[in-house]
Amino acid sequence: AASRAGGGIMRHFDFGLQAQSVRRNHLEVLLREAVQAQRFTLAYQPQIELRSGRITRAETLLRWRHPKLGTVGPSEFVPVAEDLGLMNELGSWVLEAACQQAALFLAKFGNSPSLAINISPTQLRDRKLYGLVASALERWNVPPSCIELEITEGLLLENTRQVIDTLQNLRKLGVEIAIDDFGTGYSSFAYLAHFPVDRIKIDQALVRAISSVKNGDAIIGAIINMAHALDIKVTAEGVETAAHARRLAELGCDEAQGYWFSRPLTAQALENALTPFSWEENPPP
Ligand code: C2E
Ligand code: MG
Ligand code: MG
Ligand code: MG
């Protein structure tokens, strides 16, 4: 019967594809539950100022561990949350959690590394974003300089008045804006000159080009120089080797993030990493 009624479909039935769609359905159900119950944590990956070797910032990274599924990475569940229309809710949770953590660091150390929060496309398109950020900062009594928003460059190409207004207002408030994964899409310095941006994060694929592509380091150097000419700071992502870290420092890169310096940490581990540095800033009485 199978061969008469379009047997090709039966013979070529793709079990891999079916397994994928089963997992996807499963994820959707469990993710809805998890968002509702706020069953997430944040990891914090230090960003090191290359000139001083100090931790000046940390990127907040969503973590989800389900009792049955195990750990699911944000590269898998963030796009699902986007599709399900859950990203605004999840994003608000991240914003609150990050501000709460900054408030804890402020109470403990008198200062906080700037916490960089990833903002998804739907969050940035939402008119409520500015108000959400402003009220989270107020609720936790955290100065705007303690957080930073990372957005992807694709969004800037949309170039809508509303997105530009939101970014401009956030910056007026004192929240820094970083372009994430710079160099993976249609990166162009032409648009950077017109956008309210404080920092670019050079994508790890480009960082790897330092040693894997002929003249790779000259290319990175040119990007760093062009960014600086526009008064934009540069952070390198995915720095995994000492050689890359050293070369980036020589090329004038401002900050770096990657496994060479530190994996993403729990809040407690970040606090431990900050402790010696903070005693310098606030000597004990
Ligand atoms: P991203 O914002 O570009 O974050 C950097 C990713 O690179 C993180 O993966 C980090 O763990 C990983 N990474 C850091 N250093 C190294 C390194 O030296 N080598 C390698 N190979 N990888 C490194 P993670 O945590 O799995 O996050 C993946 C992506 O998920 C993020 O990319 C971001 O786009 C998204 N994401 C994570 N948290 C959030 C969030 O709170 N909101 C939104 N909207 N997206 C998030
Ligand atoms: Mg990021
Ligand atoms: Mg990135
Ligand atoms: Mg990325």
Automatic annotation (TrEMBL):
Superkingdom of source: Bacteria
EAL domain boundaries: 24-278
GO BP terms, alphabetized: regulation of DNA-templated transcription
Protein name: Phytochrome-like protein cph2
Organism: Pigmentiphaga humi
Lineage of producing organism: Bacteria, Pseudomonadati, Pseudomonadota, Betaproteobacteria, Burkholderiales
Interval of the full protein contained in this chain: 271 to 555 of 555
